[in-house]
Design a protein that fits this description.
By secondary structure, this protein is mostly helical. Helices cover about 75% and strands about 5% of the residues. It has a single domain, classed as Large-conductance mechanosensitive channel, MscL, domain 1 (Non-ribosomal Peptide Synthetase Peptidyl Carrier Protein, Chain A, Orthogonal Bundle). It has 4 helices and 2 strands. The protein has a two-stranded antiparallel ribbon with strand order 1-2. The protein starts with a helix and ends with a helix.
Amino acid sequence: MDKEKIKGVAGKGKGLIAEFKEFIAKGNVLDLAVGVIIGGAFSKIVTSLTDNILMPIVGVIVGNLDFTTLAIKVNLWGRVVPIKYGLFIQNVVDFLITALCIFIMVKTINKFMRKKKEEPKEEPPAKRDEVKLLEEIRDLLKKSK
């Protein structure tokens, strides 16, 4: 490569880095990062709720069943492989709880946004009779010129 091509590639790289810095500095990316972190923490809470509170209660209701141990052993190519469908059921319940919470949150936010849009705008105060009369005089003077 000759020197001009190298400078051209290096110049594009600097522009790319500057553009990336600008992208990162925008508020939307920071908001997204905060949302992902909070979502991860929320996911841990829901998983703990499902694993440690809900599923043991459901297990007792359906006959002292421990969902974490539910599995089918399948012989695949000479190896016995456990298919842990109990853990899958727990993860489905976990997902449904998370989806329900997100649905309620989005529904609440949309309700507040609709109320904000529907708020009546304040009408300007009615003009006094003197102002109306002065405006009529002004308009008549404009017409007479």
